Amino acid sequence: MSETVKASGGTTDGTDYTDRLQRLSGAGWKRALNVQAPYRWNIRRLELGFTLDVGCGIGRNLAHLDGNGVGVDHNPTSISACREAGLTAFTIEDFFKSEYATPGRFDAILGAHLIEHVEEEQAKEIVSSYLPFLRSGGRAVFITPQERGFASDATHVRFSGFDEVGKICTDLGLTLDRQFSFPFPRPTGKVFTYNEFVTVARKP
Questions:
Q1: How many domains does the chain fold into?
Q2: What pTM was estimated for this model as a whole?
Q3: Residues 6+ apart with CB under 8 A from 86
Q4: How far apart are CA 53 and CA 148, in angstroms?
Protein backbone atom coordinates (compact mmCIF):
# COMPACT_ATOMS: atom_id res chain seq x y z
CA MET A 1 0.00 0.00 0.00
CA SER A 2 1.41 3.40 -0.94
CA GLU A 3 0.43 6.74 0.56
CA THR A 4 2.98 9.07 -0.99
CA VAL A 5 1.68 12.56 -0.38
CA LYS A 6 2.46 15.11 -3.05
CA ALA A 7 1.70 18.79 -3.29
CA SER A 8 2.75 21.63 -5.53
CA GLY A 9 5.19 22.76 -2.86
CA GLY A 10 6.85 19.40 -2.33
CA THR A 11 6.31 15.94 -0.90
CA THR A 12 6.26 14.44 2.58
CA ASP A 13 7.98 11.17 1.70
CA GLY A 14 11.65 12.14 1.46
CA THR A 15 14.65 12.89 3.63
CA ASP A 16 14.17 16.63 3.11
CA TYR A 17 10.77 16.55 4.79
CA THR A 18 12.10 14.62 7.78
CA ASP A 19 15.02 17.05 8.05
CA ARG A 20 12.57 19.96 8.03
CA LEU A 21 10.50 18.43 10.84
CA GLN A 22 13.61 17.82 12.92
CA ARG A 23 14.92 21.31 12.28
CA LEU A 24 11.63 22.92 13.27
CA SER A 25 11.13 20.80 16.38
CA GLY A 26 14.72 21.29 17.48
CA ALA A 27 14.74 25.08 17.32
CA GLY A 28 16.45 26.44 20.42
CA TRP A 29 13.67 28.84 21.37
CA LYS A 30 11.11 26.01 21.22
CA ARG A 31 13.18 23.87 23.56
CA ALA A 32 13.82 26.78 25.92
CA LEU A 33 10.14 27.66 26.17
CA ASN A 34 8.98 24.00 26.21
CA VAL A 35 6.37 24.90 23.62
CA GLN A 36 5.20 21.29 23.32
CA ALA A 37 3.98 21.21 26.94
CA PRO A 38 0.37 22.30 26.24
CA TYR A 39 0.08 19.99 23.22
CA ARG A 40 1.45 17.07 25.26
CA TRP A 41 -1.10 17.89 27.96
CA ASN A 42 -3.89 18.00 25.38
CA ILE A 43 -3.02 14.55 24.02
CA ARG A 44 -2.69 13.01 27.47
CA ARG A 45 -5.90 14.49 28.88
CA LEU A 46 -7.87 12.67 26.18
CA GLU A 47 -6.82 9.38 27.86
CA LEU A 48 -6.78 7.54 24.55
CA GLY A 49 -5.38 4.23 25.75
CA PHE A 50 -3.29 2.17 23.35
CA THR A 51 -3.10 4.37 20.26
CA LEU A 52 -2.20 3.96 16.60
CA ASP A 53 -0.61 7.21 15.45
CA VAL A 54 -1.23 7.38 11.69
CA GLY A 55 1.16 9.73 9.92
CA CYS A 56 3.38 9.84 13.00
CA GLY A 57 6.21 11.78 11.33
CA ILE A 58 9.28 11.94 13.57
CA GLY A 59 7.27 10.85 16.60
CA ARG A 60 6.29 14.02 18.46
CA ASN A 61 2.88 12.68 19.47
CA LEU A 62 4.21 9.17 20.01
CA ALA A 63 6.47 10.70 22.64
CA HIS A 64 3.47 12.52 24.13
CA LEU A 65 1.72 9.15 24.43
CA ASP A 66 4.57 8.07 26.71
CA GLY A 67 5.07 4.61 25.23
CA ASN A 68 1.38 3.77 24.93
CA GLY A 69 1.27 3.91 21.15
CA VAL A 70 2.52 2.64 17.81
CA GLY A 71 3.31 4.90 14.88
CA VAL A 72 2.97 4.38 11.15
CA ASP A 73 4.18 6.68 8.38
CA HIS A 74 4.91 6.47 4.66
CA ASN A 75 8.28 8.21 5.11
CA PRO A 76 11.00 5.65 6.00
CA THR A 77 13.41 8.37 7.09
CA SER A 78 10.90 9.64 9.62
CA ILE A 79 10.34 6.10 10.89
CA SER A 80 14.09 5.74 11.37
CA ALA A 81 14.05 8.94 13.43
CA CYS A 82 11.23 7.53 15.58
CA ARG A 83 13.13 4.32 16.20
CA GLU A 84 16.32 6.18 17.03
CA ALA A 85 14.30 7.97 19.71
CA GLY A 86 13.21 4.62 21.15
CA LEU A 87 9.66 4.77 19.78
CA THR A 88 7.72 1.90 18.17
CA ALA A 89 6.98 2.85 14.58
CA PHE A 90 6.63 1.20 11.18
CA THR A 91 6.48 2.06 7.54
CA ILE A 92 3.06 1.29 6.07
CA GLU A 93 4.12 -1.99 4.50
CA ASP A 94 5.84 -3.18 7.66
CA PHE A 95 2.90 -2.19 9.87
CA PHE A 96 0.49 -4.33 7.88
CA LYS A 97 2.88 -7.27 8.34
CA SER A 98 3.33 -6.62 12.06
CA GLU A 99 1.70 -8.21 15.10
CA TYR A 100 -0.16 -4.94 15.68
CA ALA A 101 -2.22 -5.22 12.51
CA THR A 102 -4.98 -7.27 14.10
CA PRO A 103 -8.69 -6.39 14.38
CA GLY A 104 -9.60 -4.26 17.37
CA ARG A 105 -5.99 -4.02 18.59
CA PHE A 106 -6.12 -0.30 19.42
CA ASP A 107 -8.22 1.82 21.76
CA ALA A 108 -7.71 4.90 19.59
CA ILE A 109 -6.43 6.14 16.26
CA LEU A 110 -4.67 9.50 16.12
CA GLY A 111 -4.28 11.41 12.87
CA ALA A 112 -2.42 14.61 13.78
CA HIS A 113 -1.53 16.88 10.88
CA LEU A 114 -2.39 14.17 8.38
CA ILE A 115 -5.67 15.02 6.67
CA GLU A 116 -4.63 18.46 5.39
CA HIS A 117 -1.85 16.86 3.33
CA VAL A 118 -4.26 15.05 0.98
CA GLU A 119 -7.51 15.49 -0.88
CA GLU A 120 -10.74 14.34 0.77
CA GLU A 121 -11.02 10.97 -0.98
CA GLN A 122 -7.44 10.04 -0.21
CA ALA A 123 -7.93 11.06 3.40
CA LYS A 124 -10.92 8.75 3.65
CA GLU A 125 -8.98 5.94 1.98
CA ILE A 126 -6.08 6.31 4.41
CA VAL A 127 -8.24 6.48 7.54
CA SER A 128 -10.53 3.64 6.47
CA SER A 129 -7.56 1.34 5.92
CA TYR A 130 -6.73 1.55 9.64
CA LEU A 131 -10.25 1.52 11.11
CA PRO A 132 -10.38 -2.31 11.32
CA PHE A 133 -7.61 -2.11 13.92
CA LEU A 134 -9.69 0.22 16.12
CA ARG A 135 -11.87 -1.57 18.66
CA SER A 136 -15.61 -1.04 18.77
CA GLY A 137 -16.24 2.03 20.93
CA GLY A 138 -12.69 3.25 20.36
CA ARG A 139 -11.99 6.86 19.45
CA ALA A 140 -10.51 8.46 16.36
CA VAL A 141 -8.86 11.83 16.96
CA PHE A 142 -7.89 14.17 14.14
CA ILE A 143 -5.84 17.33 14.60
CA THR A 144 -5.50 19.82 11.76
CA PRO A 145 -4.05 23.34 11.45
CA GLN A 146 -6.14 26.48 11.32
CA GLU A 147 -5.67 29.22 8.72
CA ARG A 148 -2.23 30.52 9.65
CA GLY A 149 -0.84 27.04 10.18
CA PHE A 150 -2.30 25.76 6.94
CA ALA A 151 -0.61 28.57 5.01
CA SER A 152 2.75 27.89 6.68
CA ASP A 153 3.51 24.59 4.91
CA ALA A 154 3.70 24.17 1.14
CA THR A 155 2.88 20.46 1.45
CA HIS A 156 -0.60 21.24 2.77
CA VAL A 157 -3.19 20.44 0.13
CA ARG A 158 -6.71 20.96 1.50
CA PHE A 159 -7.87 23.19 4.34
CA SER A 160 -9.51 20.83 6.81
CA GLY A 161 -11.57 22.56 9.48
CA PHE A 162 -14.37 21.27 11.68
CA ASP A 163 -16.80 20.82 8.76
CA GLU A 164 -14.34 19.06 6.46
CA VAL A 165 -13.01 16.68 9.10
CA GLY A 166 -16.46 16.07 10.51
CA LYS A 167 -17.71 15.05 7.08
CA ILE A 168 -14.84 12.58 6.67
CA CYS A 169 -15.73 11.04 10.02
CA THR A 170 -19.44 10.67 9.30
CA ASP A 171 -18.79 9.39 5.77
CA LEU A 172 -16.67 6.64 7.32
CA GLY A 173 -19.41 5.70 9.78
CA LEU A 174 -17.83 7.31 12.84
CA THR A 175 -19.92 9.20 15.38
CA LEU A 176 -18.77 12.71 16.24
CA ASP A 177 -18.17 13.21 19.95
CA ARG A 178 -16.82 16.75 20.03
CA GLN A 179 -14.77 19.36 18.21
CA PHE A 180 -12.74 22.14 19.80
CA SER A 181 -10.04 24.69 19.10
CA PHE A 182 -6.70 24.35 20.89
CA PRO A 183 -4.81 25.91 22.58
CA PHE A 184 -6.64 29.19 21.96
CA PRO A 185 -10.16 30.15 20.82
CA ARG A 186 -11.00 29.67 17.16
CA PRO A 187 -10.32 33.26 15.91
CA THR A 188 -6.70 32.97 17.02
CA GLY A 189 -6.04 30.52 14.21
CA LYS A 190 -6.04 33.31 11.67
CA VAL A 191 -2.83 34.77 13.17
CA PHE A 192 -1.24 32.04 15.34
CA THR A 193 0.48 29.27 13.37
CA TYR A 194 0.04 26.59 16.01
CA ASN A 195 -3.68 26.86 16.75
CA GLU A 196 -5.40 23.60 15.90
CA PHE A 197 -8.76 22.04 15.14
CA VAL A 198 -9.34 18.92 17.24
CA THR A 199 -12.04 16.44 16.23
CA VAL A 200 -12.92 13.45 18.41
CA ALA A 201 -15.10 10.73 16.92
CA ARG A 202 -16.04 7.22 17.99
CA LYS A 203 -16.32 3.88 16.20
CA PRO A 204 -19.72 2.28 16.81
A1: 1
A2: 0.86
A3: none
A4: 24
